[in-house]
Amino acid sequence: MLFLRLGATAFGGPAAHIAMMEDEVVVRRKWLSREKFLDLIGATNLIPGPNSTEMAIHVGYLRAGFAGLLVAGACFILPATIIVGAIAWAYVQFGKLPEVGAVLYGVKPVVIAVVAQALWRLGRSAVRTKLLLGVAVVATVLGFLGVNELAILFGSGVFVILVKSMNRWRKSTLPVLLLAAFPTSTAAVATGAVSFGLWPLFLVFVKVGALLFGSGYVLLAFLRADLVERLHWLTESQLLDAVAVGQVTPGPVFTTATFVGYVLGGLPGAVVATVGIFLPAFFFVGVSGPLVPKLRKSWIAGAALDGVNVGALAMMATVTWYLGRAAIIDLPTIVLAIASGLLLLRYRLNATWLVLGGAAIGLLTKVLLHW
Hints:
By secondary structure, this protein is mostly helical. Helix content is 76%, strand content 0%. It has a domain at 2-100 and 127-177 and 286-325. α1 (2-9) packs across α4, α3 (34-45) packs across α4 and α7 packs antiparallel against α13. The radius of gyration is 21 Å and the shape is globular.
């Protein structure tokens, strides 16, 4: 039930989703320690796929093994898939997107407050030494300068390994973490327009789910290269509409695939695209999940994870800053953000209710302005 509720109410992208999960599984239910939760954040940043969905899958695995892995992941994805599917139906029927601006006006400031308090709590656990504080500061600066997310993550991990190695007076060659270079299009598919079919659609989204690192915004580049430029299945306008729906609806941004699949192939297309893009996440977590507890037993892996954790939090802080500038734009949104922060810190109010309250206030504000 927890991940069904989060999937239906977790607005704001991966950073906000992870913040809400931290509130539920660490603070309220105490299923995980804050340190363990941070390790899972680091692990999800080291594998491709949607980070917040992979966090849900990881938590499910730790609670109930592979059955929990499947249930938690499916429950987090399902509500968003249904919502996006309904919007896609309206889009196909009426040729435009339903009005969502009023809801977002109230929800965004609340999301910023939720993420900010989670950053504070997680940061106190992650930044335990002067070394990690320095890495966090540098990583945050690099994030603002636009340095690639993977470079920040792996750079943070490798730097902490190097420093700790010198402290241990190790003169041996250090292990080097390498990323395989992935192509941006499926080699098995010929260049140029290809007739639409459910199997080619499935292959496109499996590839995206298996190769995409970084934020949900990178999804736009992948889908444009395949669906607009190479296959010519979508127009630029349709793709932007699809990504917009994924951004403004609750749950994982990757449900953009549901919208695209429905537009191209109706309900069967929506199902095929959704399964394709999320399937690799279940595989990668299933393979890597059992290894996470073992990482701390190795000083090298533990140092790398410490660095990756603070690097991930630094990127989370950078995203929060930029989103905050876009979300907190006038007096009502300032009041909403401050009030949400106080309610979270003072009374530990459930973030889900705050998000729903923000949505209601946004709709009420729109109605009053039109009177």
